[in-house]
Amino acid sequence: MTADPTVNPVPAPDPATAEDEAGDLAPGSRAAGPALVLEFAWEVCNQVGGIYQVIRSKAPEMVARWGDRYVAVGPYEGAKADLEFEMMRGAGWVGRALTQLREQHGVTIHHGRWLIPGRPRVMLLDHSSLRDRLGDVKYRLWRDHGIETPGGDGLIDGVVTFAEASRLLVEALCNERALVPGRNKGVSRMVVAHFHEWMGGLAIPMIRRARLPAATLFTTHATLLGRYMASSEDGFYDWLPWVDQDKSATQYNVRAQHSIERACAHGSHVFTTVSSITAEECAHLLGRPIDLVTPNGLNVAHYNKVHNQQRFHGEFKQALHRFVCGYFFPSYSFDLDNTLYFFTSGRYEPRNKGFDLCLEAMARLNAELKAARLGKTVVFFIVSRRATKSINPLAMEKRGVLNELEEVCEHITKGVMEQLFWRAASGGRLKLDDLVDEYWMLRYRRAQQAMKQHCLPMVVTHILEDDQNDPVLNQIRMLGLHNTREDPVKVVYHPDFISPTNRLWGVDYDQFVRGCHLGVFPSAYEPWGYTPLECLAMGIPAVTSDLAGFGRYVQEQHQDHDQWGLTVLPRRRRGYFDAAADLAQRLLAFCKLDRRQRIALRNEVDRHSWEFDWSRLAAAYHRAHDLAIDRAARELDQDPHP
């Protein structure tokens, strides 16, 4: 690793990390052809949202096909890059291109490896050096593509400079790879530039305007305008064909972003999105039908613990039991052996993520369980990030008392065990009370008294910054989900991430999920949706909806999904209360399963989760790259001035 990633190539480059002068792969590589594939995304070595998961988990399959001709490209964010990026010198034609960019354009590109499975090559663009050219680039965007970008918006300014740096990189690499003239000029050493989302894809219209010999692809994981509209208006997909996209973009103040998305979609050789339901959105809002659906997979092996899936569920369920003891038992207790843990989680978009529908269904399930007298308790967790002042002091106090009680019990158990052994060995009778030291007996009783509280358990674990105007909390109040002793359904609104450093938990999010019995994600707008897929990979049944991309994909590919643990709730062209009633009945049916049936269902979930591994779903990306290469090659063959 060197301090400067853009120095001139050394005479003898490392054959394991660089191509030689002829453009051949290093020994042992398994690339599909001579193309160089650059995958651009704002979230390469820069975790912001779900696209990070897509690029990161897909990387091993891309490397398996393209070898060192696959390069992930993103913006250079120093603090984040330090954690997962290993810098290396660029050699051969790569080194020449990087040197050219630094010396001619002042753009530093950090070249190396992403420290993730597959260890793909990475180029991180320090596009901040182009800020002095921002006005010129914005003028060209307006003049050549009709894209107006507001001043003073830091994110959009960053997107513009990243796009210019990306264009310069593609141009330099195209020049260095020196397309061979003649019949095969379209495929020999082709540069494939694949861009994700509007934040990473603005370079596409620039590349096409410059007539660079590169195949371009654009993948949108949602449309920004669609996300805004769906979050505030009912029946989004039903009236989508009649939307005035320009007027709506102005209404929601996303004209620049929407214009960028449209330019990327129309400028690319191949246009893809993650699901068929988002394809409808793209056709109407972006004005171009997609060429392919490229569904999001998962590295299932990362989550799936094979024969330990059931054991881990049992182990991490104890962490949830412990939370419940400290949270509910100071007010009243219930049978933990007959308690089921349901949860929902995601970005704080209560309508889009279906939090509102979950709560409506929980209120109905509460009434159903009271009538059915199953003897079951359901604890429903809502996990999202919301502005808070602190964890509720009462929750922390009872958690501390619970820890004290555990310590007391450990001392009593240890002392009694030793004395009981000697009594048993000497033929004494089984009698325990006189074996407990009076000091520990008093501490035991004091801890029990300190645990008690004369109020109902809280419904929210934290003190919210805006308690009166929080939509989730207000709906809980409106539905009367107050966590009374008589309520079989208890609600815990947790407006923060679950992590080992969270003082209420001490476990990470994946461990929390493993301890639950069911994930509930009946989204109203979700272009894909990783949360139910992550549940499946960990052997946990889940609920999604037909308004989620993942739910639609499962409906299309796996008609027996209900039988093996993935419920797809019908929401399209259906009233809110009808959907809530349906969800409540499905949750009630789950509550009626006995322990043996739940174990069998988790085994089926575990078995089917491999259907969504990247080893199967990456094939769609391979088809997209091949199609882009073919279209670009034909375009180059027809171009009299390549």
Would you summarize the structure shown here?
The chain has 24 helices and 17 strands.
Characterization of the model:
- This protein has 642 residues and is α/β, with parallel strands linked by helices.
- It folds into three domains: 36-297 and 618-638, Glycogen Phosphorylase B (Rossmann fold), CATH 3.40.50.2000; 300-391 and 458-612, Rossmann fold (3-Layer(aba) Sandwich); 393-456.
- It contains 24 helices and 17 strands.
- The strands form three sheets. Strands 3-4-5-2-1-6-7-8-9 form a nine-stranded mixed beta sheet, sandwiched between helices.
- Helix 5 packs across helix 7 (203-209), helix 14 runs parallel beside helix 17 (471-479) and helix 14 packs across helix 21.
- The longest helix has 33 residues, at 393-425.
- The protein is elongated and about 100 Å long.
Tell me about the biggest sheet? 9 strands, mixed
Please identify the oligomeric state. single chain
User: Can you give the mean pLDDT?
Assistant: 88
Number of strands: 17
Mind telling me the C-alpha Rg? 29 Å
Q: What share of residues are in beta strands?
A: 5-15%
Number of domains: 3
Q: Whole-Å distance between the termini? A: 38 Å
* Spatial order of strands in the largest sheet: 3-4-5-2-1-6-7-8-9
Structural category: alpha/beta
Poorly predicted regions: 1-32, 179-186
What's the tally of helices?
A: 24
Going by CATH, the architecture of the largest domain would be 3-Layer(aba) Sandwich
Determine the CATH topology of the largest domain.
Rossmann fold
The CATH homologous superfamily of the largest domain corresponds to Glycogen Phosphorylase B
Shape estimate: elongated
